[in-house]
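Here is one chain, start to finish.
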Amino acid sequence: MKSIFALFLFLLVFSHSLVQSQTPFWQQTQGPGGGMITSLTVTPNGHIFAARIDHYLSFGGVFRSSDNGAHWAEADSGLSYLHGPYGALHTDSYGNIFLVSDTDIFRSTDEGEHWSNINTGLPPHVIVSMLINSQSGNLYAFFDSSKYGNEAMYRSTDHGSHWSPTSDQRFYNSSAALDSSGNIYVYSVYRGIFRSSDEGTSWQKMAPLTVNDFSDGLAVTKTGILISTNSSGRTIKRSIDNGASLQTVDSNVNTTFMGPTFIASNGSIFIGLSGTTTHTSNKILRSTDNGTTWIGLSAGLENLPFVEANSFAENAQGEIFVGLTQGVYKSSDNGDHWVDANNGLLLSACSSIIEGANGHLFAGTDYGQIFRSRDSGMTWVLASDGLEFFPIPRVIVFGNNGGIWGELSLPRFAATPNGHLFAGGLGANYLYRSVDEGDHWIPIDSSFYSRTIGVDKTGRIFSEAYNISDQHEAIFRSTDDGDHWTKVGTPAGLDSLYVVSIVSNHAEHIFISGNYYSPSTGMPLGSAVFISTDHGDSWNPTSNEIAPYAINTLATIKNGTGVFVGTDSGGIFLSTDEGAHWKQVYKLFDSAVTSITLHPDGSVFAGLSQRIIEQDEGIGQGPADTLGGDVIISADDGVSWKSIKSGIKNIDGNGVSAVTATTNGYVFAGMGYGKGGGIYRGFKSLPLGVRETRNSEAACWIKTIYPVSSSPILEFSLPQGGEIKLEIYNETGEQVDVIASEFFSEGVHKVSWNTEKINSGIFFAKLRTPNLSATTTVRVVK
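Its structure:
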């Protein structure tokens, strides 16, 4: 009986260990949601599709909702290589879905499950607009003749499989619309409005327009009234005679740009507004009398700090959907009120994450949005009421022990020990403060443009800013919760430094890091780290070992004098003497260390925006990837590092822009720009392999003494003697050499690599023992 019980106990423990080892470290949270939605469409069976781009105007994915916007899921198989900045969706009566992106048109015939390119017959130029004739089912694609000189309109009569030009008529930067009879209207810059009644074969010039009559968009109502918007003149015009003439119906539209015009099934006309930067501005215009009068709509959108309304759609129930810079919003009452419909539309750019004084989490994302989580990061809600600017918020936080728990490359956001939050950013006229966990934000200072914020353990707030009065960079300090600010000591070199990080250690010493740029070319000129031991009254430069590399982030070691620095191409540096000396503890050539955070157990996490090879899966697992990301961890103060990214979707497409460890032991990773995204949460306890590293691999390491050389020398350390292999792999994972395969004693050893038969390039040296392994990068230059 005892042997049976023992066997049962062994199997129970073994199965538990097996499940633990197979469980991904990271779990995707339910947010934040949103992103810039460029286009919406609804298929005949009621599926809603949304196209998104990220902040740098690259493709951010196509999403589908099968429950009227309650939930969204990715639906873009076949579009992974898409790089165009523009995404316009269209649906025909046959259920075909079309995506226009830059110079390409894609089609899906199975509700977005698969997409294929349908450019046959089209010129390789940017497509400015597309229409679908609901009567004939034919497609029309329009180009800008002023740039390319080719025919402006192409037509497809077989659902996009083939295209051909319709005539030699040329249009310039055209916008187009169809009426219910199939007539096509096209606006051409400086030329006026044209109409075709034979699907583009011939054209008739209608209303002549002047330069001041520039039209951003056209739409035709069900009664045949033509609506034209003009952002430069802030006017709305209409035609009741099929485009023969245009009359102004509104000449004082309060916006910097007018977006799309949409005609609802009940005849209501909606116009999206762009560049509405304050929470009191109208976001959308509506007319219910064929464009005679217009009213502004913003109920439910007031708290959005920056709005561009890019697209509209309507489902069979008459609900109106609008695509904004902050995702999708829905109205069930003809636009009078709008509600968030972003569940599943995970943001592709989370620039920062912090933990507040009470343990709640805050995340900064695109377009001035700040999100809050009160359930350990699993769900997120918008907390941006009162913010009136267009930044990418970046967050830092003061740790209970004086350390910085989450510090990132473009700080815009900080938390003080009393729980108050501060936000600033690019384009901000004010520094903002919230005393109620982000429910409301109030501007507190307009004398400088705040860009980077840090807080010490006593609550002193430091901000690097552009001083409006003397037009120079400066450091400001507040000792009264941001009510008043004083310019503090600015030594030579700091007044021209673009500061990216401000952190404090347990001794209340303040570190500032940043980069220098050429005022004429904008090219980087080096970097620097400064330290103040008197609360900012004076500053001194630290050692200059990091100067050749651009700096992205700083983080202080808990209860110590150590500081980690993450760079753009030089990896991670560590100083254990407050900057008197810096040591490179993690080497990178083509990757950026975007963020560094300290776990409560002393481990260090770092987020990478690129990586060279899958170090956690071993060399030889596939081609090198230079456009991805990673999270790495060190359990021994930076001596050795492991990759830890299991569970993160599309990490090689996004990169990691933020990592933060919280006081309760969770770790959070925010994704960078690209398809997919959101925030991931890691286990409270570290994975088994990392825990083992602390005990058994601390003394096993390998490094390149001359990282760029024609005759590299490798140095490695063994915790105990034994047989080892030292192998060299190229960037594709192919083994190209074996330097050593023999017995080595315990301790540190050096070996040289004969590269006589090796071409220049990047290689990876992997040290293997029966139980341990370590890897380093080697660059051969001849």
